[in-house]
Each structure stands twice: as C-alpha cells, then as structure tokens.
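Slide 14.
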Amino acid sequence: MAKAARDYVIKERLQHQHGKERTKFYRTKLPERHSKQKGRNGARKIFEASSRIKGAARNGRHLRLMPTRFENLLHDGLVLGQIEHKEALAHSFFSEASGLEPNNYMPYLFGASYSGDTAGWLHQAIERNPHSVKSWILLGEEYARKGDIVKAIKSFESAAEIFPEYEIPYLRSAELLQKLGHQKEAVYFTEKAEALTSPLLSPTEGLIDNKELAREP
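Slide 15: predicted structure.
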C-alpha cells in the first residue's frame, strides 16, 4: 500500500506537473472575479471575503489556511485514543466532529473503535464513503471478532473490489474460509494474495460467489 501511495503521488500529485495548468485556471477565473468586483476596491473585497473562510488566518497582506475545529478534533481524538488511551474522551471528540460535518465519513471511521458500536459506526462511514477500503476492512475485522464469518468475508470482498491490488483482504478471507472448511476457496484467495506480492506472478481475476457461504450454519 505504501508503494502504491508513493507511485500515485509521484505520478499525479507533484506540484511541477500541475503548475502550468493551475496557473492557467487561475488566470481564466481572475477576469470573471474582477468583472464582478468592479472598481479599485475589487481586490480588497476579494481579500476580505477570503479572510472570513473557516480556518483562514490573516497576516498583513497574506492569508494562510489553518486547521479547522473539525480537523483538530480528528487529530486530538486520535491522539487521545491511540496514545493516551482515553477512549471515552476520544469518543466525545469524534462525536463532536461528526456533528460539525455530518456528511464526512472520517469521524465515524476514526471513532468506531471508541464508540461502543464499532460495526454501526463503520456502517455510517461506509454510507458516507462507500469507497473507503479502510472502513470495509475494519468492518470485516469486527465481524470476524464477533464470529460472523460470512459477513466478515463479504466485507473483505467489498474492500477487494475497490482496491483489487491490495493483498490483505484476500489473506483475511482465506483465513476465514479455512475456518468454514472451504479449503479450495481458501487456497484460491491465498494464491491470489501471493500473486499480488510476487513480481513474477499476476493475480487471477474474479471473486468467489458467497451464495454457498450464506447457507453455512
């Protein structure tokens, strides 16, 4: 995952790759803005309006975006939960963050393990961002912990459908399939994961059908 993230940044997110395009975009937008802000005070009005954006810090002629209350709550909640082990306080921070931005999935993802209803909070995260691989994997782990192996495997498969090049969902599915006695399917997932981590092999395509698993006791 780290390699994939680094490759993506190098390919898509370096500043010099987008500088000309970004400058061109701003140049096309400036005349539009100036046409609406006629007069000598147009630039000042733009500056004043931008100064009122949440998180904007003003320093003379310059503006700087600072962390918002929402962002600080996420950061502090993670520190409280993971480092200081103050789970109740961490939960209160994530709850407040979810109230500030109710459509954002991150408070539910980060706060799930401190909520007392891990699966419920992860479902809230997925409802807001169905493409969150992390949310699906954590949901699979939670179902596995509760012994609901079928739902756990389905969650891991959802993660694999979003990010087919990530081996962890296949490995976890293989482990759970072994517990159900589905050795053939377990081997399939194990080989698929190994193919993803081997430079000499390419992964086979497709996932197994869960209809048989759903009939397991």
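Speaker note: The longest helix spans residues 15-36.
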